[in-house]
Design a protein that fits this description.
432 residues; alpha/beta; Aspartate Aminotransferase, domain 1; Aspartate Aminotransferase, domain 2; 2 domains; four-stranded mixed β-sheet; 14% strand; globular; binds pyridoxal-5'-phosphate; PyrdxlP-dep_Trfase_small; Aminotrans_3
Length: 432
């Protein structure tokens, strides 16, 4: 009897705190509200990127500089969203700025032709990530769609094995039962996907892959589920999945959209996942019957030149290692202050997942492990109060660090988390 009563009063107290925080949010952000009211007239729900919607209205940002963003009401925040990992370089890196400007001034933007810049960047990507050949795409969603098309063309098979909680793009999301984040759904080739219901469960993955057998075109997997809650995949699990795919003559596609930043040669290399044989010939336009892969901006000069400069001169192997070590230390300190509370942290290096659960468990190998224990009320309360303290984080509980974020700012966040947990001791401390 006692646990139920405690739970109810805890949830009631959390609801009261949440309502108060929401009221302050509304009072503090009239310009964001006005912007949202305007935007709903032209964009469905005032939104053109679903995950950025938050109720009662999203904050509208007007500017970013270095590791900070400012909203339209004039509040300044430390940017811990980091554009969900894509904003690695912050908002005003001098070399990136200079490369953008010199591309505009000296190269031009849309040359409607192949250029030397795409090869220069491709050569660096191949050398850095141990790849034979690459193709460029504009988004992660697109890259995965083309990778799947390539795998299907190469194997002449259709089925793709994915994992619950996996996110491979707006139309390739497999949140399902296992996912932490409510991340869209799968809306393409729906009948072709077979979902393994647990991430990090090699025996189950093997069974599912063997079941698909000779129909397997590919296994598509993240080395760490990002949108699914920053849940690292075990090396043995991932290597086992790769071997199982090979056994069936299917390809192994490691989606490194988020995780390529976690180690100098990407997370795959770090975990001993060697790329499949070079299947990129399926895109060779000199060969009849190969796949078309077009996209007006695939080789746009801005990205080719900035990507090259950033990888070559800014995010060097040494910088990558030091940055991710800093992330490990940051997460460890957050863990320390949250010990015994309903807040726990997962992730790897510079990518951190925040979880609010009934028992504060840190044992999260798969979204299913926390599915029935999630405390979204506490998650929302945390998000709102971190905004008040000047920290821009995602409501879903994800931090992607930005290069060059001052140590003192990370210290300030750790302290804000400690103060939050102290202020809400009664609802944040676990009963057991
Ligand atoms: C692992 C992974 N794959 C694919 C995507 C899709 O990338 P994009 O949003 O650029 O389409 C994401 C986006 O977060 C991702 O995390």
């Amino acid at each position: 009897m006692a646990p139920n009563i405690t739970l109810t009063s805890n949830q009631e107290a959390a609801q009261a705190a949440l309502r108060a925080a929401e009221a302050r949010f509304i009072a503090n952000n009239p310009q964001s509200k006005a912007q949202h009211d305007l935007a709903v007239g032209t964009l469905p729900g005032g939104n053109t990127r679903t995950l950025l919607h938050t109720s009662p209205f999203p904050l509208s940002m007007k500017q970013g500089k270095d590791a900070y963003v400012w909203d339209v009401d004039g509040h300044k925040y430390l940017d811990l969203v980091g554009e969900l990992s894509a904003g690695l370089f912050g908002h005003s890196h001098p070399l990136i700025r200079q490369t953008l400007l010199s591309t505009i001034d000296d190269v031009g933007l849309s040359l409607g032709a192949t250029t030397p810049h795409e090869h220069t960047y491709a050569a660096l990507l191949c050398a850095r990530f141990g790849l034979a050949r690459v193709r460029m795409a504009n988004t992660g969603t697109e890259a995965n769609l083309h990778a799947l098309a390539g795998a299907r063309h190469f194997t002449r098979r259709r089925k793709v094995v994915v994992f619950a909680g996996g996110y491979h793009g707006a139309v390739l999301a497999f949140g399902g039962e296992g996912g932490v984040a409510a991340a869209g759904g799968n809306t393409v080739d729906v009948g072709d996907f077979v979902v393994v219901s647990r991430y990090n469960d090699l025996a189950l993955a093997r069974e599912v892959i063997a079941g698909v057998g000779g129909a397997l075109a590919a296994v598509l997997v993240e080395g760490m589920q990002g949108a699914g809650g920053c849940i690292p995949g075990g090396g043995e699990f991932l290597r086992g999945v790769q071997a199982a795919a090979r056994e069936q003559g299917g390809l192994f596609i490691l989606d490194e959209v988020m995780t390529s930043r976690l180690a100098p040669n990407g997370l795959g290399a770090e975990l001993g996942l060697t790329p499949d044989l070079d299947v990129m010939a399926v895109y060779d336009p000199r060969v009849e019957g190969t796949l078309a892969h077009s996209g007006t901006f695939n080789n746009n000069t801005l990205v080719m030149r900035v990507g090259y400069a950033a990888l070559n001169e800014v995010f060097t192997a040494e910088v990558c290692v030091a940055f991710n070590e800093k992330g490990e230390r940051f997460r460890e300190r957050l863990r320390e202050v949250a010990r015994g509370s309903r807040l726990s942290f997962t992730g790897r290096g510079s990518l951190i997942g925040l979880h609010f659960t009934e028992d504060g468990t840190e044992e999260i190998d798969c979204g299913l492990d926390v599915k029935d224990k999630r405390r979204e009320d506490l998650r929302d309360l945390f998000w709102l109060e971190m905004l008040e303290a000047g920290f821009w984080t995602t409501r879903r509980g994800f931090i992607a660090m930005i290069l060059g974020t001052p140590d003192e700012e990370l210290d300030r966040f750790v302290e804000a988390v400690r103060v939050f947990l102290e202020r809400h001791r009664a609802i944040m401390v676990c009963d057991n």
